[in-house]
Amino acid sequence: MALFALASCGRKSADTRDADRPVVMVTVPPLQYFADAIGGDIVDVKCLLPQSAEPESFDPTMQQLRDAADADVIFSTGLLPFESKVVKSVASSNPDIKVASLSDSLHLLMGTHGHDEADPHIWMSLRNARVMARTAARALISALPADSAYFAERFAATESRLDSLDSVIASRLAPAKGKAFLVWHPSLSYFARDYGLRQIAVGQEHKESSISGLTNLLKSARSENAVCFFSQKELDSRQAQMVDEALGLKPVDISTLSPEIESTLLQAADAIASASKLPQK
To answer: What is the pTM of this model?
Structure first.
């Protein structure tokens, strides 16, 4: 973890930073990880999506669009419906703004949220995150070339740390390859792909399964010996109880919209490894 503790010699201290720093607007909280990791003390990071809002149904207000237009750089997934509205709006009022789609160059999963839709939870993968960090670094270097060396240094440290964490998790979960886990919303598709796991979603498109649908799903999960159940705030407690009673899987709370994506993915890996009674690495 020390790789990420980069010094910023000659930079302003936290108590002297002011509003003249370039603003990086991220569309959803997890993208703050990349703005902070690469931008460091150079930039002021703001998030467009309110804490209580759902990214797949969010509709920004005019004030939020104006705030986005005032930014110097925007990081988006390029996959969420509201982001196209943001990009179109800011382009007309601030043609000089740099908009970076962090899904560029990723191998996207299709069909987890709809027949023709790409899975937008691209940050739930350390392997994706490495590519996303590179895209973020290129965008910041392009927008703020005077600080290119600083951004390049922070990217190198971030890339190294992501590689190390990926290796740790891959080793930890290697004996669990092929195992299934439950989650309410299909937000761990990329995580499952990275480590050879099977994700079984309790609900789709922010709708909980019917009782009969959930019963059939639990039968499938039982036949596949699902080892873990990740609960999210959206899940009805009654359905969580049904999962517990049917499979004996206590809910493991996980926040897939947190900007702390490293700790979130480590938590998921630890939960699966522990539930599978795998040895610690």
So the answer is: 0.86
Closest CA to 135 of 165, 109, 158: 158
In this structure, are residues 260 and 32 in contact, taking their beta carbons and an 8 Å threshold?
A: no
Burial class of residue 140 in the structure, from the number of CB atoms within 10 Å of its CB (0-12 exposed, 13-18 middle, 19+ buried): buried
- Whole-angstrom distance, CA of residue 213 vs CA of residue 20: 54
Are 76 and 102 spatial neighbours (Cβ–Cβ below 8 Å)?
yes
Are 206 and 187 a contacting pair, CB within 8 Å? Answer: no
- pLDDT over 90 at 42, yes or no: yes
Q: Which two tokens stand for residue 110?
A: 């299709």
CA 175/CA 120 separation, integer angstroms = 28
Q: Two tokens at 45?
A: 């990071």
The helix (run of H) or strand (run of E) holding residue 89 is: helix 81-93
* Contact of 191 with 197, CB cutoff 8 Å: yes
Distance of CA 94 to the CA centre of its chain: 27
Q: At what angle do helices 32-39 and 148-173 cross, to 10 degrees?
A: 130
Helix (H, G, I), strand (E, B) or coil at 201: strand
Report whether pLDDT(39) > 50.
yes
The reported pLDDT for the residue numbered 209 is: 56
Task: Please name which of 234, 248, 245, 250 lies closest in space to residue 202, comparing C-alpha atoms.
Answer: 234
37 neighbors 158 (Cβ within 8 angstroms): yes
What average pLDDT score do residues 121-149 get?
97
Q: What is the reported pLDDT for 181?
A: 92
Residue 35 pLDDT greater than 70, yes or no: yes
- Does position 237 have pLDDT exceeding 70, yes or no? no
